[in-house]
Amino acid sequence: MADTLAHEAALPGQDTDPPAPPARVLATPEALALIAQLHGQHGPLMFHQSGGCCDGSAPMCFARGEFLVGDSDVLLGHVGGEPFYMSRPQFAVWEHTQITVDVVPGGGGMFSLERPTGKRFLIRSRPFTADELQALQSHPVA
Asked: Region labeled Disordered — which residues (predicted)?
């Protein structure tokens, strides 16, 4: 069996599959727990990060379909199985960063579903590495 595995391994100089791109959006365990709680209460959810004034710096959580997305929004990925969208102009600023949805004490956005829980979603971010940015080039957002 070791011989078989050795033959399947890439040889030096041989092309290998490019690395998988990193996730554009992640969630902390605390955020995943709150997402699960809200999903249990409201059914399927969605997130939107607008970058606008007031609550625009925090992701808003809605029952899926209660916030209409369109050509001016991009789907970054999913957190806790729920889609996470960002406005296209905001994405133009944040496209070089990986976003992590987290939870802190406080009131959520005016229309965000977590508001009554005494917790609020917020994003933390880090810049992608050069290798990660290169991997992302072949996986544009929709």
From this structure: 1-22
pLDDT attached to residue 124: 94
3-state DSSP assignment of residue 106: coil
- What is the number of other CB atoms lying within 10 angstroms of the CB of residue 112? 21
SS3 113: coil
At the topology level of CATH, where does 23-134 sit? Hypothetical Protein Aq_1857; Chain: A; (2.60.300)
User: How many beta carbons lie within 10 A of that of residue 67, not counting itself?
Assistant: 16
3-state percent breakdown (helix, strand, coil) of the chain, nearest 5: 30, 30, 40
pTM more than 0.70: yes
Q: Residue 115: which residues within 8 A CB-CB, separation 6 or more?
A: 107, 108, 109
14-72 pLDDT, tens digit each: 556 667 899 999 999 999 999 999 999 999 999 999 776 555 568 999 999 999 999 99
Extract the tokens encoding 35.
Answer: 């997402």
Reading the block at residue 60, the tokens are 């808003």
Let me know: does 107 contact 121? Beta carbons within 8 Å.
Answer: no
